[in-house]
Specification:
Chain A is α+β, with helices and mostly antiparallel strands and 490 residues long. Chain A contains 10 helices and 12 strands. In chain A, strands 2-1-5-4-3 form a 5-stranded antiparallel sheet. A 5-stranded mixed sheet of chain A has the order 7-9-10-12-11. Chain B folds into 2 domains: 164 residues, D-Maltodextrin-Binding Protein, domain 2 (3-Layer(aba) Sandwich), CATH 3.40.190; 103 residues, 3-Layer(aba) Sandwich (D-Maltodextrin-Binding Protein, domain 2), CATH 3.40.190.10. A 6-stranded mixed sheet of chain B has the order 2-1-3-12-4-13. The chains are: A alpha+beta (490), B alpha/beta (284). At the A-B interface, helix 2 of A face strand 8 and helix 7 of B.
Chain lengths: 490, 284
């Protein structure tokens, strides 16, 4: 596995950590450079300050040749702040460049020549300016161990000696490395705080992305799983990804529903065609058979057994004809347009059934004018649906009808408070011979479906624990008053 | 009414008596000069000693501290102080001008010595003669143990004290000679044995950096002297004050802090050794 194949969960903290380290390094480097400069500047300033005050104090002391006082003067910076001074030593030279006194008498014995103190000092001795009004002389040789700052001990043009403020570079380094290590620790501390935050952030960021990825990869297998939008309620790219996924999901669901509807209506159409052709095939010989029986009854003189048998045949054939007639929904029938009185008729027709069961009927009709729909067919649909609803509502239930005719659509909603229907029932509701009750032949809803479909409308059912609703929507052709030509094949 | 009067009179009487006491304690303050012959920086001790003396003598006492022996000698000669605790060398020099009043007893004897001290790492030096051509610290040009004794030893060995050392300087106190030796600034120095011994108890870390290489014979302990202008009464009062210190607890506590046993009257004969050395240098 290559580094760049790693999960963003690791890559983000790694990248963040890298950035933090790079930043810390850059800052530390600039801080270190600044510190080094400051230390050097402080050192020289410190040297000048100590040098000036000490040299000033040393003049009268040297004038009186008071070695002890001189020793106390040069020791003062060390006794006043023990431990802290970066100054290594203060050395007073007499005019012959011999040690007059030093703050480190054991290393710089009195009266020893400067050159005897070491190569650093020997080199310094060669360069040391000796004029009474010489300026501060700084010697910092790159190969030497020490930085020397030399000041004349002079007053009024008389030079009694030289004060050398000496710094050991190792002390400077010690200071500097202290600063460096401190900044290193701070960087580590920052890293220790920031890395877990980055890791957490990376995880937080990656979790929704991972979920989306998982869901998308599962879409292929037909699982359409929702994503909890509370998981990532922000509007950034990840949030947009969430939204896009939701949109894709909605579209896919819509498509799936559409496809199911398509399959269903195709199936219904196929069933319709099959039913119609079978019905026609049956109807033709059936008419002949019924005619023959009629002729036999009228002109023949059959014996009682034959008469009984013929009657039996006639009743059976009549039942077949009724059934076939029911299957052959004829929308072609000429009929007067639908009016409010038709609905009132239907109400009167179903009222006894409702009354018998103790079902309440709620009636809401908004039909102002005649509606360009064949009244016979609409009445049939209405009666079928209402009777079904009354049966389903049961004792003490409620049934509500709402019929609204607008300029271009006729809406019919019939609801009942009966037992809710199961999803599998809803799926096959309008197929013929699908009965969900003991009574009924399972053709009522089929007929409704055929009629509504032939009128160019839709019929649908929905069911919830409170209400089961059938909704019929039939478009109205405002130009042509006659209903649309039936689509059912002959 | 008579009771009130009585009380009033009593109060007035008390006030008067107070004033009288006040008047008694007033008068000329007793000025007492100190030299760095003992541990010079014990200011608290001096303050307590002053209170001790004032309470008992009912006279104000003033301690005057001077760093250089010569300054104290001047104060005595100019009669700017009544008493002074000085080194034995100045005492012998001023013998005609001052009266010996008391001598401190140090470890049972009214004497002290001169120590030749060298840095602790110097294990060879046995006498000042081993330090020829070296760098040497003297305490004070009027110090017996810190100046006269080493120079006398050099002279006795037949050398010239003026050229014996490569470099010498004065630190103006015994304590600072010890510091100079401890710091390695000098190869040696002579100090008052009493100062070194006391410092050895108070600051053993400082004395540990030094080694006593040689001890001189006993000399009379730095004496407390009275200026010639001091009345016999004052002389006797102060003398008895000092000598009685060992008799009360407070006095004993002060003596303990001074690391002294007591004060005795002493005798000028104690200082004959110093006088002898001075004679060698032709100073008497």
């Amino acid at each position: 596995m290559r580094l760049f194949d790693l999960s963003l969960r690791f890559k983000l903290p790694l990248w963040g950590g890298g950035l933090i380290i790079a930043t810390a390094l850059a800052l530390s480097a600039s801080y270190a450079a600044q510190s080094w400069e400051n230390l050097n500047r402080d050192l020289l300033q410190n040297a000048e300050e100590i040098g000036r005050t000490t040299a000033h104090a040393l003049f009268p002391v040297m004038l009186h040749d008071d070695v002890w006082d001189a020793f106390e003067v040069v020791s003062l910076p060390f006794t006043a702040h023990p431990g802290t001074p970066m100054t290594e030593s203060l050395i007073v030279l007499d005019s012959a460049k011999r040690v007059y006194v030093s703050s480190r008498p054991q290393d710089h014995p009195l009266l020893s020549p400067l050159a005897a103190l070491g190569p650093d000092f020997a080199a310094l001795g060669l360069e040391l300016p000796t004029a009474a009004d010489a300026a501060i002389f700084v010697r910092d040789s790159p190969d030497g161990q020490r930085i020397h700052v030399a000041l004349p001990i002079a007053s009024d043009g008389v030079r009694l000696g030289t004060l050398i403020v000496s710094y050991n570079k190792s002390l400077l380094w010690e200071r500097f490395s202290l600063i460096l290590s401190r900044s290193l620790w701070i960087s580590l501390l920052v890293l220790a705080v920031l890395l877990p935050i980055t890791a957490y952030w990376g995880r937080r960021m990656m979790l929704p992305m991972r979920l989306v990825t998982e869901r998308i990869s599962r879409i292929g297998s037909g699982e359409l799983e929702d994503l909890d939008p509370a998981l990532y309620p922000y509007g950034d790219e990840v949030g947009q990804l969430f939204k896009a996924y939701e949109a894709v999901l909605a579209k896919l669901r819509e498509k799936a529903v559409f496809e199911r509807e398509m399959v269903k209506s195709e199936r219904m159409a196929a069933v319709g065609r099959l039913t119609a052709s079978i019905a026609h095939e049956i109807n033709n010989p059936l008419g002949g058979m019924l005619n023959a029986i009629s002729t036999l009854k009228r002109h023949g003189s059959p014996d009682p057994v034959t008469t009984k048998t013929v009657s039996l045949l006639e009743r059976g054939l009549s039942q077949i004809r009724e059934t076939v007639a029911a299957l052959l929904v004829e929308a072609k029938v000429k009929s007067r347009p639908l009016s409010a009185s038709d609905l009132e008729d239907v109400r009167i027709l179903v009222a006894p059934a409702a009354h018998k069961q103790g079902t309440q009927l709620a009636w809401a009709v908004e039909l102002n004018d005649r509606v360009a729909l064949p009244s016979t067919l609409v009445r049939q649909v209405l009666i079928n649906l209402l009777l079904n609803a009354i049966t389903a509502a049961g004792h003490g239930g409620r049934v509500a009808l709402r019929a609204i005719a607008s300029r271009d659509r006729f809406d019919l909603v019939i609801g009942n408070t009966g037992e809710p229907m199961l999803p599998e029932q809803l799926g096959r509701l309008f197929e013929p011979f699908t009965s969900f009750s003991e009574s009924g032949n399972g053709l009522g809803l089929w007929i409704c479906y055929q009629i509504v479909t032939q009128l160019g409308g839709t019929i649908s059912a929905e069911s919830s624990p409170e209400w089961t609703r059938f909704t019929v929507l039939i478009p109205l052709d405002p130009v042509n008053d006659t209903p649309a030509a039936p689509t059912l094949p002959d | 009414m008579s009771r009130f009067l009585k009380r009033l009179m009593l109060a007035m009487g008390l006030a008067l008596s107070c004033l009288c006491v006040q008047g008694n304690t007033e008068g000329r303050p007793i000025r007492f000069a100190m030299t760095p012959a003992f541990l010079h920086d014990q200011h608290a001790l001096l303050a307590d000693w002053r209170v001790y003396l004032e309470t008992r003598m009912k006279r104000p006492v003033e301690f005057i501290q001077r760093d250089r022996y010569r300054d104290t000698m001047d104060l005595l000669q100019q009669q700017k102080v009544e008493f002074a605790w000085i080194c034995d060398y100045p005492y012998v020099m001023l013998k005609k001008e001052v009266r010996l009043m008391a001598v401190a007893v140090n470890e049972g004897k009214p004497t002290y010595r001169s120590y030749l001290i060298v840095p602790a790492r110097d294990m060879q030096t046995r006498s000042v003669m081993d330090l020829k051509g070296g760098i040497f610290a003297f305490a004070d040009p009027y110090s017996n143990t810190g100046y006269l004794v080493p120079r006398f030893e050099i002279k006795r060995a037949g050398a010239d004290p003026a050229t014996f050392f490569k470099r010498t300087f004065f630190t103006w106190s015994h304590r600072k000679v010890i510091d100079a030796v401890a710091a390695g600034l000098v190869q040696g120095g002579n100090v008052d044995s009493y100062v070194w011994d006391v410092l050895n108890k108070v600051r053993p870390d400082v004395t540990a950096k030094t080694r006593v290489a040689w001890k001189s014979a006993d000399y009379g302990f730095p004496p407390v002297v009275a200026s010639r202008g001091v009345s016999d009464a004052d002389f006797a009062l102060m003398q008895s004050m000092l000598m009685k210190m060992k008799d009360d607890a407070e006095g004993r506590a002060l003596l303990a802090r001074l690391r002294l046993d007591s004060f005795i009257a002493g005798s000028p004969a104690l200082y004959d050794g110093v006088a002898e050395m001075m004679r060698q240098f032709g100073e008497i």
